[in-house]
Amino acid sequence: MSRTSIQELPPSLVRSDFWFNDGNLIIIAGLAAFKVHRGQLERHSEVFSDLFSIPQPKDPELIDGCSCVELQDCPSDVFYFLGALYDGLYFKSPRSSDFPAIAAVLRLSTKYLVEHLRQRCLARLEADWPSTLAGWDLRERHSTDETGRYVPRDCCPHPILVIELALDMNLPSILPAALYDLSRYGPSKILSGAVSPTTAYEQKISQLHGIPFPLEKPVRLSRDMLCRTLRGRESTQRYMAGFISKDLHGRIPSADCLNRHEKEGPSRPCHESFYFIMLNILRSVGGIACGRDADPLYTLVQATEMLFRTDFSDGQRQCGLKLCQPCKADFAASASKARETVWSQIPQWFALVESEKHNSLLDLD
Questions:
Q1: Are the beta carbons of 101 and 83 closer than 8 angstroms?
Q2: Are 100 and 76 contacting, i.e. CB atoms less than 8 angstroms apart?
Q3: What is the C-alpha to C-alpha distance for residues 191 and 187, in angstroms, rounded to an integer?
Q4: Which of 15, 200, 237, 327 is 20 to 30 A removed from 253 (C-alpha atoms)?
């Protein structure tokens, strides 16, 4: 049986970093070529196993003595996917730079039915973009460094990249957290979009072959998702306005208030303390304090922490709020309940569920 053998890689193809001398299969994706082991693919993927069982032509074209398979996938995705198949998918600590690998491996492990890799990708995405309030609070703690700086983009990628992946892969469970995260940006930043990061494959190809890095690719939301994001942002701010009005400006002290018999006015120290908390929340909502003007989950945590702080000043010395213990407990319970309400309302605020029937609008099947 005669075979057409091409000993060298055609100049039109770029030899990738995945090139095993003892490999027996050439994978071509776009302009990239990968020399790998057929058995490794068959072992992990039912799709590849079935593909290789199909009878081959009598005179197949060989490259470097190996048969070829052409995949209609992005070369960068194939690079990350092969890396995960050979080396596993491990991350020492969560970093936003992990996202290109996670997205690529998720796409191809779903397409080629490599379930253990798919589950690892989903587990990481669900940790970064949780479906529970406890998960969100843990994620926020991980996004705060040793000096107390809030640096979410060090740990998690830009939410627009995650939203696009969730829509593409039909992952509605991570959309509420991603949309809420995005809504905390100002409107102009939301409209500006994000930049697709340079992948490890692009960096390696550039280094190996002197090919310039590709230009930065902007990623912007569709008009529909922009509207959902901005309307959701308005809803979070509207909720906080209601909380301020009901639970602070018009707050009635606890029935067990220890200051209710004050001579200068019933519960006056507690009323003054609630007023002080209200002013600080208004500063936060207005974006004056730290730029997180549409983050009620954070604002309510800050309000609760004010109950126990002792670094306020009365003009002469540092002190804490003069709230009595029953009023502190009452307000802490109100703030905690408000956070739970906010979390439960996020899917509705961002139009991910219908207001009454709660049917998903993002079932893409």
A1: yes
A2: yes
A3: 6
A4: 237
**Closest Cα to residue 352, out of 192, 232, 199, 200?**
232
C-alpha–C-alpha distance, residues 44 and 84, integer Å:
11
Count of positions (residues) in the chain: 365
Amino acid (one-letter) located at 52: F
Strand 318-319 vs strand 312-313: parallel, antiparallel, or unpaired?
antiparallel
List all residues 6 or more positions away from 359 whose beta carbon is below 8 Å from its beta carbon: 353
pTM: 0.87
Rounded CA separation 73/191 (Å): 29
First-to-final CA distance of the chain = 47
Query: 206 is written with which tokens?
Result: 């550039």
DSSP H stretches of helix in 9-87:
38-44, 46-52, 75-87
| Dihedral angle of Cα 149, 154, 155, 159, to the nearest 10 degrees | 110
Q: With contact defined as beta carbons under 8 Å apart, do 333 and 279 qualify? A: no
Q: What is the largest CA-CA distance in the chain?
A: 107
How many angstroms separate the CA atoms of 107 and 123, rounded? 14
Separation of alpha carbons 192 and 190, rounded Å? 5
Distance, CA of 125 to CA of 267 (rounded, Å): 48
Over residues 56-91, the pLDDT tens digits come to 777 777 888 888 999 999 999 999 999 999 999 988
